[in-house]
Design brief:
The complex is a heterodimer of chains A (181) and B (102). Chain A is an all-alpha fold and 181 residues long. Chain A is 72% helix and 0% strand. Helices cover 76% and strands 0% of the residues of chain B. Chain B is elongated and about 50 Å long. The chains are: A mainly alpha (181), B mainly alpha (102).
Amino acid sequence: MFEQILFVLLTIITLGSAIVVVTHRNLFHAALALMVSFAGVAGFYITLDAGFLAAAQLLVYIGAISILIIFAIMMTRRLMQATEQPFNSQRGLSIVGALASLVIMALVIAQYWPIAPNSEVPMASKTILEDAILQGSVAELGRSFVNVDAFVVPFELASVLLLAALVGAILVAWPKTEDQT
Amino acid sequence: MIPLSWYLLVAAALFCIGLYGVFARRNAVAILMAIELMLNAVNINLVAFWRYVTPEESTGMAWAVFVLTVAAAEAAVGLALVISVYRNRDSVVADDLDLMKN
C-alpha cells in the first residue's frame, strides 16, 4: 500500500511539472519545472531498485543538462520575457494528436499487461530472485561495460560520442571573429 | 505491489506531454526541453522492463545508461546550435528558421 501511495505521489510530481514545462509562458520557470520532473523520474528509478541510475539521473540531468538549458535561456535573454507568444498555430491539433497517441499507447499496454493492482506476478526479486542479485547489479553493470562479450564496444563508442559532442558544441558556439569573416 | 503497466502508463503519459511540447512550442529551447522529457519517458520504460522481466541481466540498465549519454550529447550540441542561431539571426523561434525552405 505504501508503495502505491509513493508511486501516485511520484506520478503527480513528474507529470504535473512536465505539464508545466510544456505550457508555462516563462521559459525560466519551465526550466525549473523540468528539474523537478527529472527528480521525479529519479524517484521512479529508486522504486525500481535502480539506485545507480537514479544517481546518474541526478548528476547528468539535474546537474548538467538542466544547468546547460538555463544557461542557454539566460544567454538568449529576450526569451525570458513572457510577452512573446509561446505557442504556434498547431496548438489545438497538437493536443488532439498527443491525447490520441496516449490513448493508443494505453490501449496497447492494457492489452498486454493487466492494469489492476495485484493482478499479476509481483516484482521478480521478491519471489524468485534474491536481493543479493539486485545489490550486485551495479557491480555487474560495471563489469559488463568492460567485458569483451558484453558492452565494451558501445561503451567506448559512447566516450567517442561524448568527445565529438564536446568538440562539436564548442565549434558551433564559437563566436566568429572579425578576420574570419 | 505495483504492476508493470503502471510504469508503462506513466512513461506513455510523459512521452505524450513531451510530444505535445515538441509540436506546439515555438521556442527552440522549449522544444529541446520537451525532447528531454520524451527521452526520460523512454528511460523509465527501459528500467521498468529491466526490473520486471530480466533483473538478472544488466542489459536494460546498460541501455538506459547509453540513452543518458546520448541525451547529454544531444543537449550539448542542440544548445550550442541554439546559441549560434541566436547570434546569427537574433531569434530562436523555430518558425523563423526557414533558411532552407525556399
